[in-house]
């Protein structure tokens, strides 16, 4: 049976991996110490970051296996499920940084944790580190480990959280670097995005389904919504939603040349439920109303 193993506490996850619990809300787990185990679906009720140390294939996302080389980070938000059922045994390898939401509650990190979009990226959108980047990540982990093994005092929580925040800020920088170094691949995705939008507005989909959503387009490109949104922002300077709206106005301008169609008809053809919403967006993007644009031509 494909049961899901739930980890509600850090202590449970430590025990599962033969790891000593030094703090009830945070741990650095040496997965090499874990016993060999069969593939199972695992659900974590805390933030989980895996650093894969060597080439291995124990992580699975959907129906696909992914091999990770030295220095790859995978991020999971609380409530996410990873893995799949398998009768085969494997040896977990790598390091996991796990911390409970209660650890960061009331801190600046707790208030800003939603800004780290990579916690909702798909596994195949992992962060691949250079040797120097991996060294910096390991340095952050070493500082957290030091604080966990240091006698708890009034500074402990602040220093642990500060080092986790530093760790995540470095990851943000490294993801920015990854978007740049994968520029050719990203441009391919941008081109496919443009093709999907063109195809969408040439079909009956807007009339039947409304305006295209960022989520549905990301799914068609086999990307998570946040990764897709961050990629488009890095490549174009616009959010994916802004890009879609720009395309809508571009298509609308072509349609406005057909004076046999009313503004309302054009609005419905573009996927708007209410014509006034179309007029509002058009004026926001172009500075004039659809009627004013039509009268210019």
From TrEMBL:
Residues in HTH araC/xylS-type domain copies: 191-296
Keywords: DNA-binding, Transcription, Transcription regulation
InterPro entries noted in UniProt: Homeodomain-like_sf, HTH_AraC, Tscrpt_reg_AraC-type_HTH
Domain of life of the native organism: Bacteria
Matches recorded under SMART domains: HTH_ARAC
Protein name per UniProt: Helix-turn-helix transcriptional regulator
Organism: Chryseobacterium tagetis
């Amino acid at each position: 049976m494909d049961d899901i193993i739930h980890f509600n506490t850090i202590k449970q996850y430590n025990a599962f991996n033969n790891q000593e619990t030094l703090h009830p809300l945070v741990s650095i787990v040496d997965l090499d110490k874990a016993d060999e185990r069969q593939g199972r679906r695992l659900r974590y009720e805390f933030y989980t970051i895996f650093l894969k140390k060597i080439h291995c294939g124990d992580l699975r996302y959907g129906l696909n296996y992914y091999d990770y080389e030295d220095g790859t980070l995978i991020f999971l938000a609380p409530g996410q499920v990873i893995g799949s059922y398998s009768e085969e045994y494997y040896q977990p390898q790598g390091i996991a940084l796990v911390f409970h939401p209660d650890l960061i509650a009331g801190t600046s990190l707790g208030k800003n944790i939603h800004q780290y979009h990579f916690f909702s990226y798909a596994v195949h959108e992992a962060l691949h580190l250079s040797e120097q980047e991996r060294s910096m990540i390991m340095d952050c982990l070493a500082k957290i480990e030091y604080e966990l093994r240091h006698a708890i005092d009034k500074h402990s929580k602040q220093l642990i959280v500060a080092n986790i925040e530093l760790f995540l800020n470095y990851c943000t920088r490294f993801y920015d670097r990854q978007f740049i170094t994968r520029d050719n691949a990203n441009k391919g995705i941008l081109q496919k995005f443009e093709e999907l939008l063109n195809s969408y507005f040439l079909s009956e989909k807007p009339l039947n389904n409304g305006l295209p959503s960022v989520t549905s387009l990301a799914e068609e490109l086999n990307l998570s919504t946040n990764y897709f949104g961050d990629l488009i922002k890095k490549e174009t300077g616009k959010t994916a939603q802004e890009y879609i709206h720009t395309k809508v106005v571009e298509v609308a301008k072509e349609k406005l040349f057909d004076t046999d169609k009313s503004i309302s008809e054009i609005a419905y053809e573009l996927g708007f439920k209410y014509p006034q919403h179309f007029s509002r967006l058009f004026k926001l993007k172009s500075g004039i109303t659809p009627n004013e644009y039509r009268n210019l031509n």
